[in-house]
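User: Sequence recovery, please. Input:
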């Protein structure tokens, strides 16, 4: 019997004819129709943000343009009209959320980085309401570094060392403390807390040495966990500075996986096996090794080529047990388990090296060669691009697919059995140039002078006809801020690659920098090793639909239900009034279920409203139940491998240079006013009124009295006596006029605001019913309640208002999330001598999210260079009306 490898090589010359699938009555056709229906009913939206630069400093603005696409539309999405963009800190806490209008699938805005933010690893996350129905893995989620040299007094640099003893991982952290000028903090006290997975593991004290270094040792019985060190340094003035230092891993273990192509490893067939080695930080680690059989005989060797990924071909034999002996870069070795071997079945193999065709092979074990008809489907995001079938009468059946029929991006090839079940899958990436726009830039008017006027003219086309599209432009001085070309924000790598893959993808832009054989092989290794979860065939076959909870937002809506007792109020009168705009009043009637809706609303964020409801007979004794969309949960950072331990050190050159720019902006009066906070430990006070409807914000008052202080009070005088500056007269609270204990009372009685309703009454309430009382007596807090608040305000939150979803009779206040208004990027013009004399040291030279090409595909923009020499890097990104993507990078020097 000839060697099977030789036999298969001979068979590979014999191509089986894969007939185009036809036949309306075939059960498989019904499955394909299900897919079409599924994709039509549940399209995929994606969001990408073009950012103006790769990292930032406090005081900066994060400028961005949002592109939203739709899998059904094959281009910009018209499904959603609103997008959310968030800034999340390294404690997974929301720092800022913007709600922006999507206009024909695009939007833009800016996030101001407040002076009070500490340096660290932050995330920019973006999504539509409709995208919340699916996994958060497919949100736009980018880790960025933000440095702080404005309010920061202490800078740290941390190095970790790992060892293992008695199944415990020993971690030693050496933390260097210094000031902004590089002077170490010597012999200063440190108190610290170790948190792993948000749980406190240990606490302790340490002291810096003469070099400013402090050593902190801790242990963990868990591998590759993340956490943080909370280190408090006591300064000479006795104030304490809190530094939050990431723990990116609790060990230095490397995980190695062996993944058979298409997920199936068959006996006695030559197959490709992918290798993926990941270190404790989540990044790829290159390795080498050998495959051993159960007699410790070397079967084959392997090594990874890029970011810990590679592949090799082997032929596993019946009855053999295999292991992989892996050698690491430090010379150590470790054995790993080999993939499970199947005695019979089918798998697929793909050769993606040819420019014109995709070569596909079906491999079958000898005992399943029975003429069974298998099918292959090539689809992307639910759209089918190729369907074929073949009778399996040989162990190797080969075919090819014309690449021109396939789209750019990830194509999923699925092999179906004779009874129409998916049995093997393979991902393939195609970078189809004909699906992308060509950007040709005219640089004749680009200035090489400081403060010189630069003009760019460009043309967008598909190399045959002009493209009308929407584009965003960023220009940055990369001599000040170094881009990471492998991992920067990139419209191609995001919308074509990472947005369809679950989990972390290291340096995704690397695969788009060069179009050569080596890069394409590295990209194919990524396809062999990266998990796929956006589309699952079994859900379509078994009619498992996603749970659609969140509808595509077309506008801001305020809606709810009016009830009297437990019955809906039919034909009730409902009014919506904006507090800050007396002319804004809308009214409507409730339907048969007592429901009402105000839609197509457009208002700025922080606008406050009142909803008032009455029955047909004007009875106000009704309850208003407002609809509330729950906030999107903040999941753990899936890109934890992008977290930088020493943020300020990495961006130090930039943040120091940025201080000069901010000083000049302040001199010119162009810097936004903000409060600078020294980075000291501030012990936060517990908010005693978290459920308050106080218009100033929960807890924003001159004094807050918690419910626990009132539980033993029988009379209201007992309560009023606990409020500073308030005296009880005939069981009624009155503010004291002046100070010093004067008994002179203010003429105007105090205003009761009960569960957001005013004027309110205490009738029917007892002190034990109260969760909190907020005392407002200064003009800073009372003004928002108008003239009635002249005698002071008592904002009372009842336990009834907290513990039930009902609010007080006939009226309710609300502060819904409104639309955020974007600033205009400040781009100075140097047309006069006065302007020319300013010290312009911007890092972002120019930002423009609103460039639209004409019918001829032409676009134009102009700006003035800054007053600093360096290499200026211009990036154009965009998308045309047909959904074709564009990216162009051009660098020029300013002398």
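Assistant: Recovered sequence (895 residues):
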């Amino acid at each position: 019997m000839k060697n099977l490898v030789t036999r298969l090589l001979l068979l590979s010359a014999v191509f089986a004819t894969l007939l185009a699938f036809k036949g309306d009555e075939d059960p498989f056709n019904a499955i394909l129709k299900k897919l079409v229906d599924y994709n039509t009913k549940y399209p995929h939206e994606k969001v990408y943000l073009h950012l103006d630069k790769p990292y930032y400093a406090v005081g900066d603005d994060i400028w961005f343009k949002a592109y939203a696409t739709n899998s059904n539309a094959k281009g910009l999405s018209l499904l959603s009209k609103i997008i959310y963009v968030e800034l999340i800190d390294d404690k997974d806490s929301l720092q800022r959320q913007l709600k922006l209008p999507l206009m024909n699938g695009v939007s833009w805005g800016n996030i101001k980085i407040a002076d009070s933010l500490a340096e660290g690893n932050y995330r920019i996350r973006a999504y539509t309401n409709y995208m919340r129905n699916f996994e958060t893995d497919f949100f736009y989620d980018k880790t960025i570094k933000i440095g702080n040299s404005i309010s920061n007094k202490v800078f740290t640099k941390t190095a970790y060392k790992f060892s293992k003893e008695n199944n415990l991982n020993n971690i030693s952290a050496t933390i260097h403390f210094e000031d902004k000028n590089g002077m170490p903090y010597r012999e200063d006290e440190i108190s610290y807390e170790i948190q792993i997975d948000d749980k406190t593991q240990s606490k302790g004290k340490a002291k810096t040495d003469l070099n400013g270094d402090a050593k902190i040792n801790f242990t963990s019985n868990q591998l590759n966990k993340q956490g943080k060190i909370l280190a408090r340094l006591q300064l000479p003035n006795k104030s304490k500075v809190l530094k939050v230092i990431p723990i990116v891993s609790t060990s230095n273990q490397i995980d190695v996986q062996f993944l058979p192509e298409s997920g199936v490893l068959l006996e006695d067939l030559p197959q490709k096996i992918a290798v993926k080695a990941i270190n404790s930080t989540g990044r790829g680690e290159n390795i080498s090794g050998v495959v051993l059989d159960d007699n410790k005989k070397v079967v084959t060797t392997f090594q990874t080529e890029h970011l810990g990924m590679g592949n090799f071909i082997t032929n596993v034999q019946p009855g053999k047990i295999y292991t992989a002996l892996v050698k690491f870069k430090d010379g150590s070795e470790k054995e790993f388990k080999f993939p499970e071997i199947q005695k019979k079945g089918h798998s697929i193999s793909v050769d993606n090296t040819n420019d014109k065709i995709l070569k596909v092979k079906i491999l079958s074990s000898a005992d399943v060669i029975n003429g069974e008809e298998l099918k292959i489907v090539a689809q992307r995001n639910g759209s089918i691009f190729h369907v074929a079938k073949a009778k399996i009468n040989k162990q190797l059946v080969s075919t090819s697919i014309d690449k021109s029929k396939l789209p750019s991006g990830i194509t999923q090839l699925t092999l179906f059995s004779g009874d129409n079940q998916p049995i093997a899958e393979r991902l393939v990436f195609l970078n189809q140039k004909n699906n992308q726009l060509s950007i040709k830039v005219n640089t004749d008017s680009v200035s090489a002078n400081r403060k010189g006027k630069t003009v760019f003219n460009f043309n967008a086309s598909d190399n045959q006809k002009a493209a009308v599209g929407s584009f965003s432009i960023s220009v940055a001085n990369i001599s000040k801020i170094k881009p990471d070309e492998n991992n920067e924000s990139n419209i191609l790598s995001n919308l074509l690659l990472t947005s369809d893959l679950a989990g972390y993808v290291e340096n995704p832009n690397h695969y788009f920098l060069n179009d050569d054989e080596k890069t394409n092989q590295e990209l194919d290794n990524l396809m062999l090793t990266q998990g796929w979860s956006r589309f699952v065939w079994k859900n379509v076959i078994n009619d498992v639909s996603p749970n659609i909870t969140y509808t595509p937002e077309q506008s801001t809506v305020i809606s709810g239900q009016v009830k009297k007792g437990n019955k809906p109020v039919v034909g009730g009168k409902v009014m919506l009034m904006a507090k800050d705009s007396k002319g804004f009043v809308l009214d409507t009637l409730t339907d048969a279920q007592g429901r009402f809706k105000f839609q197509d609303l457009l208002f700025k964020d922080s606008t406050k409203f009142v909803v008032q409801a009455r029955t047909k007979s004007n009875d106000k004794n009704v309850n208003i139940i407002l609809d509330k969309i729950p906030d999107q949960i903040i999941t753990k950072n899936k890109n934890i491998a992008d977290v930088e331990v020493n943020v300020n050190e990495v961006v130090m050159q930039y943040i120091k240079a940025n201080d000069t720019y901010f000083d000049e902006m302040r001199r010119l009066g162009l810097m936004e006013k903000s409060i600078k906070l020294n980075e000291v430990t501030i012990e936060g006070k517990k908010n005693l009124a978290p459920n308050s409807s106080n218009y100033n914000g929960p807890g924003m008052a001159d004094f807050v009295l918690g419910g626990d202080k009132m539980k033993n009070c029988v009379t209201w005088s007992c309560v009023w006596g606990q409020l500073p500056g308030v005296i009880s007269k005939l069981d009624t609270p009155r503010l004291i006029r002046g100070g010093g204990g004067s008994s002179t009372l203010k003429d105007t009685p105090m205003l009761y605001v009960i569960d957001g309703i005013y004027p309110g009454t205490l009738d029917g309430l007892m002190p034990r019913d109260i969760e909190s009382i907020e005392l407002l007596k200064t003009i800073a807090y009372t003004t928002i309640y108008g003239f009635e608040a002249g005698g002071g305000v008592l904002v009372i939150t009842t336990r009834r208002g907290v513990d039930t979803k009902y609010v007080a009779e006939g009226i309710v206040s609300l502060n819904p999330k409104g639309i955020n208004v974007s600033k205009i990027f400040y781009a100075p013009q140097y047309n006069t001598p006065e302007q020319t004399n300013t010290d312009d040291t911007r890092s972002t030279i120019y930002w423009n999210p609103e460039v639209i090409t004409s019918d001829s595909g032409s676009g134009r923009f102009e700006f003035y260079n800054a007053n600093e020499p360096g290499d200026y890097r211009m990036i154009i990104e965009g998308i045309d009306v047909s959904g074709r993507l564009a990216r162009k990078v051009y660098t020029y020097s300013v002398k």
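The longest helix spans residues 652-667.
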